[in-house]
Amino acid sequence: MELGLVGLGKMGGNMRERIRRAGHTVVGYDRNPQLADAASLEEMVAKLPTPRVVWVMVPAGAPTEQTVGQLGELLSEGDVVVDGGNSKWTDDKKHAETLAKKGIGFVDAGVSGGVWGLQNGYALMVGGDAADVAKVQPVFDALKPEGDSGFVHAGKVGAGHFAKMVHNGIEYAMMQAFAEGWELLETSDVVENVTDTFASWEQGTVIRSWLLDLAVKALKEDPGLEDLRGYAEDSGEGRWTVEAAVDLAVPLPAITASLFARFASRQEDSPAMKMVAALRNQFGGHAVEASNGKSAAPDPTQHQKG
Fold first, then answer.
1. Which of 36, 96, 118, 180 has its CA 20 to 30 A from that of 290?
2. Mind listing the UniProt keywords for this protein, alphabetically (predicted)?
3. Is 43 left (phi over 0), alpha (psi -120 to 50) or beta?
4. Which residues contact 150 (CB under 8 A, 6 or more apart)?
5. Ramachandran class of 110: left when φ > 0, alpha when ψ lies in -120 to 50, beta otherwise
6. How sure is the predictor about 235, in pLDDT bands with cuts at 50, 70 and 90?
7. Mean pLDDT (whole number) for 264-273
8. Do 87 and 190 belong to one domain?
9. Which residues contact 256 (CB under 8 A, 6 or more apart)?
10. What does the longest C-alpha to C-alpha distance in the chain come to?
């Protein structure tokens, strides 16, 4: 099979290599000419036999909007566009409807695997019409891990990105649980070897997982994680998961708390906790700490004056 692949960064570049190793031809385009097989989208499309399949692997939002729009002008009836980026699932229906006006199919693909995908394969969650998915199936088979799992046609257009969104929400909560457990072990004076304790969980326990393996790897490389700052960004999918839960009235306390924990990690000083400190001082006369780090305990009756 021959595939056009737009976006050859960390994920896209490794995906191109894995697909080629499976015996397929990939014509890649990237804004970085050193990575590209074609000088433009037009050249990439021209090199593909019909019906053409083009996989888009660029950042969500405007870059994806622009790329899908351009492909809509370049492709023809019977061709298929696959969005394998982290697009919001609500955008998929819009893209599918726009492309359908020209008879172009659309498949949304949630892709998980990160930098390890080239070696281990990518978990794929896809949405779209069965006929469009079938046109891309040889590529899905090349990308997925060996074995029976790792690929699912989750449902109609949008289902792939929705499933990937929920996957990432679960990932947030699992990461937060490992992080909190690690901090508790480190703070306690009972457990003297935290790294080996984590490593002992890798076999035979109900929490064994790839995330646990990666946690152990990180701790062995940097015991105590002294080289890192406790700052964590979010990709957006955690937020979308919580938004969907609100829309559908589904309680997600663990996932929601893990998202808010990431927000808290970005604060040098918590504005909310300043208010808590002020209120404790006002109603109870509790000591507070001034912004210069010194202890400050104003007259607890001061608020009654004036």
1. 180
2. Gluconate utilization, Oxidoreductase
3. alpha
4. 121, 122, 123, 124, 144
5. beta
6. confident
7. 88
8. no
9. 242, 245
10. 83
pLDDT for 297 equals 54
The whole domain housing 205 covers 165-265
The pTM for the full model equals: 0.89
Enclosing H/E stretch for 107: strand 105-112
pLDDT for the residue 299: 52
The mean pLDDT of 57-85, rounded to a whole number, is 96
Q: What is the pLDDT of the chain when averaged over all its residues? A: 92
Pair (192, 50) in one structural domain: no
Q: In degrees, to the nearest 5, what angle opens at C-alpha 273 toward C-alphas 279 and 243?
A: 120
Cβ–Cβ under 8 Å, residues 86 and 37: no
| Tens-digit pLDDT profile for residues 95-146 | 999 999 999 999 999 999 988 899 999 999 999 999 999 999 999 999 999 9
Same domain, 137 and 177: no
What Cα–Cα distance (Å) separates residue 22 from each residue in 6, 94, 135?
A: 19, 33, 16
Residue 87 to residue 240: CA distance in whole angstroms: 10
Which of 157, 191, 220 is a domain's end point?
157
Q: What's the domain count of the chain?
A: 3
Tokens of 239: 């937020």
Is residue 47 classed exposed, middle or buried when 0-12, 13-18 and 19+ CB atoms within 10 A define those classes? middle
- Beta-strand pair 80-83/53-56: parallel
